[in-house]
Amino acid sequence: MSLLSNMKTAIDLLIIVGVISALGTFIPQGQTPDFYLSQYGTWIGKGILLGSLNSLYQSWWYQILIGLLCLSLSVCCYRRLRHARSIKKAASLSFHLAIVIILAGAAWSLGYARSVAVEINEGDKINLANYGFSPSELGLKQFTIDYYPDYQPRQYRSQLQLQGYQGHDYTREISVNHPLQAGILKIYQRSWGWTLKLSDQSGEKVTPLRIKDHDAILLDKAQGLYLQAIFIPDYDPLAGIESKTPLPNNPRLVLALVKDDQVQNMAIVPVGNKAQLARYCFRFDGYSYYSGLEIKSDPGVYLVYTGFVFLLIGLIARYWQLFFIRKVD
Question: What ranges do the domains of the chain cover?
Fold first, then answer.
């Protein structure tokens, strides 16, 4: 314990933690084992995996190192606390406590913070447990876009329903810069698009398909044949495949068979109609918005905030002594 109570030990541990933390910025984190073996070679790659450098901030030895640093600083703070008889010493103590708390919060965040991008169709739900968050269901009830008179987007809005997150339900409308917050979980509005619903009626069995606007799906791998879909919300025959407005006033779907970046067949289809493209037959069943969301969870953020509060208290106490008390004297 005498070694941990030595300030030199705390400083040495702080330097070691800083160097190792910087190492995690040079080695990509969270990749597959094959990635490290191919990028760094067999021996170095195996060394990275054996030392858990591919998940540095979650490794047991990194957590122990952070724990030793926090313990050492805590013991030093305790020793100073017993002899704190002035504002100067109290300010110094507050600084040391701030470092302990900020480091603990930062280590917690580095090891367990998550950020995931998802896309949800209107009316659909996803289980957040599949993305590494607390078990709960996130659903998109409705997505809307506010436009200026010239049809430039003004704001994107998603009506979200979060059910069963840590025993609570949330129903919120989010928009850009106005996320849903549930404890340490935040859900941000990031993007949007159209999801197109098709039915493949080429064979005896009807197969439902979903495809995003401007995306393509592989139909025949041997021939390299793809089906590409382009949605026209407000179709005008004089404008071709350019939409008159972004509003779905007169929706059409452009379906094209593409091979080697060359269009083989193409059709423009209203909702409910079929398109015969070579030996393939597709029906345009409908369309809906999808909302692109970013889901973040940072368990250490409140500890970091608490550490900054202690840091601020130390600064106030320090400057109070330097300016106000000296001025009174």
Answer: 7-110+301-328, 115-194+292-297, 201-279
